[in-house]
Design a protein that fits this description.
By secondary structure, the protein is mainly alpha-helical. The chain is 77% helix and 0% strand. Its main location: membrane.
Length: 597
């Protein structure tokens, strides 16, 4: 079933002996397994990553199956960037901004606390392990992988805000963990004590540089893709974006992972108003497929490598026995779960205080705006009032979302139990330098990953059902979607008041054509409301062409208004996404093919 691939720098010496034919067969079989597991897991109600880990362990111990070892560089440099980018472009930037404090608390502060706490325990438990190596392994163990949690959460209908927090945490915590891991590894074997100030400086450099490079890559690639009228070329550039952000940032010692996340967030935010509808549709399909295959492949790899890790520990049992290693892995798991719950409890209380603070801040903004409205408005003052009005509108929308999607103690329990480890734990553990207990430390990391996936991931659905958490109300969503379409239609149909701005002013537009365009907009909103309750003319002047051009102008006006509403955050992101999908579908139908120009 497998082939032996190098896991260290010395392994590259044997790379020439790899049977690439076997690797191709492994890849094909792996894709088939992933697709079959995904199909059956949906029917059984269990997250696919859990199944894949179990299947991988079973395959690794099957008779005649050779060891499968994957270079950690391949996982960190090849698999991780597109996985994070695919998740980032799908995450609402507005929702990410609204929950930034919670996300930073979990993905930065908690990761650091967990890394040092677990590292000190391992340092105290293993005589020949220095503190820097212990913190390095703590950094490996600290970042949860949100894939399994969000897969379960979406299927069972977790509240959208909880899903956003989990997804945002999963995007940012990898960057924190890898930066901390790199700083700790640099101190392994050094006689000096761990320099927290130096580590903080390195972290700040890694973060600031990554944000700048990620933004530059995002802005430049979106600008280039917006000027391409060929969706194939635009998609080809899209596939390179995560690597364009990751490679140079990583090369200068900053966080390539964070650069990828920033580029993805910006791209997802800018795409609807920049690239063509065909490019957006192609991106949506292609990146969903890439994310599905790569995420699940990583979990299959976790299971497949267990056998080789166990054998390595057996071969070095003089340092630490297999039983003791597994026991330390279980101890680390308990510590990680306990630290997360100890952190999430006060965090939920702080979120309640944040809602009160947001309410007071919004009231102050309203009072300040009302005071300015009573003053004469002209020139710069008018622009200032307009900016104040936009800020108040955004703050009020944020407050309404916080109130409607408040995280209570039940959400806190789910958040605390959603601490499964995954891809970074898998890859970073294998990149540990040559330190005492290296084989045992790697196995400890894998024990934590497997146990948290099986224990927490396997019981999370039952926990959500037991807590009776109410998720998305589909009927309410349909009503909000219909209301949003009504608002978009009202703005879009204003284009028809003066059709001369769309078609040649010399063209006589039949009133019936305008009425057809108008009715097409009404029908779309009416359908949404129903679901919530249950020849001689020139070519360009033909009724069909005029209708299409007028209707396309309406759709474009609606899309511009939707982008403004998205910036203000007046509707939930999932509702805006559904409206965007409807507009994209209609725009794709209205856009003429190249031969039709």
């Amino acid at each position: 079933m497998g082939a032996t691939l190098p896991v260290s720098s010395t392994g590259m010496e044997h790379a020439a002996g790899i049977d690439f034919g076997v690797i191709e067969v492994v890849g094909v079989i792996g894709i088939v397994v992933i697709v079959l597991v995904a199909a059956f897991s949906r029917r059984l109600g269990i997250a696919a990553p859990i199944f894949l880990v179990v299947i991988g362990v079973g395959i690794s111990y099957a008779p005649g199956v050779p060891e499968l070892e994957v270079p950690h560089e391949f996982v960190l440099d090849v698999l991780l960037p597109p996985i994070l980018y695919a998740a980032a472009i799908r995450l609402s930037f507005v929702d990410f901004r609204r929950n930034l404090g919670t996300i930073v608390s979990l993905s930065v502060v908690l990761v650091v606390v967990t890394a040092f706490g677990t590292g000190f325990v391992l340092f105290d438990s293993l005589d020949r392990l220095d503190l820097a190596a212990g913190i390095a392994l703590g950094a490996v163990l600290s970042p949860p992988d949100a894939v399994a949690a969000t897969a379960v959460g979406r299927r069972l209908g977790l509240p959208p805000r909880l899903l956003v927090v989990l997804e945002g945490e999963g995007l940012v915590n990898d960057a924190t963990a890898l930066v901390l891991f790199g700083s700790a590894v640099a101190l392994v074997g050094a006689k000096a004590e761990v320099n927290l100030l130096l580590t903080a400086e390195q972290f700040a450099f890694a973060v600031v540089t990554a944000v700048v490079i990620g933004l530059i890559v995002g802005v430049v690639t979106v600008a280039v893709r917006s000027r391409l009228d060929d969706s194939v070329l635009a998609t080809a550039i899209s596939i390179t974006v995560p690597f364009l952000a990751f490679a140079p940032t990583n090369a200068i010692g900053a966080s390539g992972v964070l650069a990828v996340v920033v580029a993805g967030l910006y791209t997802g935010y800018a795409n609807p108003g920049s690239v063509s509808v065909l490019t957006r549709t192609s991106d949506r399909i292609n990146w969903s497929t890439i994310q599905f295959l790569l995420e699940n492949a990583v979990f299959l790899l976790i299971g497949l490598q267990i056998r080789s890790l166990v054998e390595d520990v057996d071969a070095n049992s003089s340092e630490l026995s297999l039983t003791s290693t597994i026991a330390l892995g279980l101890l680390a798991t308990v510590i990680l779960i306990a630290l997360r719950f100890l952190w999430v409890g006060p965090l939920v209380l702080l979120l309640k205080l944040r809602e009160q603070h947001a309410e007071a801040r919004t009231l102050r903004s309203l009072q300040f705006l009302q005071a300015r409205l009573r003053e004469p408005a002209a020139g710069f003052r008018r622009k200032r009032i307009s900016a104040l009005r936009r800020r108040y509108t955004r703050q009020r929308a944020d407050l309404e979302q916080l109130r409607s999607q408040s995280i209570d103690w039940r959400g806190g329990v789910v958040l605390g139990w959603s601490g499964m480890r995954g891809v970074v734990t898998l890859a970073a553990a294998q990149s540990l330098p040559d330190v005492p207990y290296r084989s045992q430390l790697i196995l400890i990391a894998f024990v934590v990953a497997v146990v948290t996936l099986l224990l927490q991931g396997g019981t999370l659905p039952a926990l959500i059902r037991a807590l009776r958490i109410s998720g998305i109300d589909e009927e309410e969503d349909q009503q909000q979607l219909a209301a949003l379409l009504d608002e978009l239609s009202f703005t879009g149909l204003a284009v028809l008041d003066d059709p001369s701005g769309v078609v040649d002013s010399t063209t006589d537009v039949d009133p019936e054509v305008i009425e057809r365009v108008r009715q097409a907009s009404y029908l779309r909103a009416e359908a949404a409301w129903e679901r919530s309750h249950s020849g001689h003319l020139p070519l360009e002047a033909t009724p069909h062409r005029l209708f299409r051009r007028l209707r396309l102008a309406v759709v474009e006006a609606e899309r511009e208004h939707l982008l403004e509403l998205r910036r203000q955050g007046l509707y939930p992101a999932r509702i805006e996404d559904r409206a965007q999908a409807l507009l994209d579908l209609e725009e794709a139908r209205l856009r003429p093919a190249r031969s039709d120009h």
